[in-house]
């Protein structure tokens, strides 16, 4: 079933056609990799779909409902969540409180925000459970600013996950971490996504990660979709390999 569908979605910045009449769709239950060179338009597409930026044209349907003009909060409520290319954590707050915040917000308990997780047992327990799923429970009381880079990336994904979305966009969840750390991060993310029956769109530059973890790959190039297919189809697509992948794809 189609979870998300865009029709001729458009976002221009002056002369830059960042997203250029894009028809993009996400099927329920898949882990979809969104790839493309720097500046291809990946983050802009996610920004427009998640409601951070208004489109200049086109339509966005989520679960069959037109959300093109909905606010970011309405879209979160409908089930669209995202993480950011640069992590978006409260460094002075503990890991537990970073997770408690989206739960409070989801539960509309924001008047209790100042008390944070300590004062609300249900929220604290749920936040602990989320930290546990992401392997971060031992760091619950540590301030987020004290985490290693790989743990920061995981916590950032956990914050978006705590909103209990149906569709989760992850903008480069393994960027800035060592190659050795990437697989454990993606193992955790994909197992949580699959066990939670969430659909995920992962923007990623590392082709080993892309081909190992995704069910389908969408390739963007200069604001347009260049290719869309299974990892095998994308691997065999000459246009993709010459314009984008170069020699980085394993034969
Ligand atoms: N807020 C903005 N104002 C002006 N131009 C922008 C803005 N955001 C993005 N762009 C431009 O739009 C194009 C697409 O950028 P975008 O960030 O979506 O690419 P990307 O595929 O996410 O690249 P990367 O892999 O480097 O993150 C680029 O040319 C970029 O410079
Ligand atoms: Mg980007």
Helix content: 25-40%
Strand fraction band?
A: 15-25%
CATH architectural grouping of the domain at 2-89 and 165-245: 3-Layer(aba) Sandwich
First CA to last CA: what distance?
32 Å
Name the CATH superfamily classification of the domain at 2-89 and 165-245: P-loop containing nucleotide triphosphate hydrolases
* CATH topology type of the domain at 2-89 and 165-245: Rossmann fold
Order of helices and strands: EEEEHEEHEHHHEHEHEEHH
- Please tally the β strands and state the result: 11
Going across the biggest sheet, name each strand in turn: 7-8-9-4-10-11
* Oligomer classification: single chain
Shape: globular
CATH top-level class of the domain at 2-89 and 165-245: Alpha Beta
Low-pLDDT ranges: 247-251
Question: What can be said about the biggest beta sheet?
Answer: 6 strands, mixed
Q: Name the ligand types.
A: adenosine-5'-triphosphate, magnesium ion
- How much is the average pLDDT? 91
Can you characterise this structure?
With 251 residues, the protein is α/β, with parallel strands linked by helices. The chain has a domain at 2-89 and 165-245: P-loop containing nucleotide triphosphate hydrolases (Rossmann fold). Helices cover 37% and strands 24% of the residues. The protein contains nine helices and eleven strands. The protein has helices at residues 42-50, 72-78, 95-106, 121-133, 149-161, 179-195, 207-213, 231-236, 238-245; strands at residues 2-13, 16-22, 25-27, 31-35, 57-62, 65-66, 80-82, 167-171, 199-203, 216-221, 224-229. The strands form two sheets. It has a six-stranded mixed β-sheet, sandwiched between helices. Strands 1, 2, 3, 5 and 6 form a five-stranded antiparallel β-sheet that branches. Mean pLDDT is 91; it is low at 247-251. The site of magnesium ion has 3 residues, from helix 1. Adenosine-5'-triphosphate (ATP) binds next to strand 2 and helix 1.
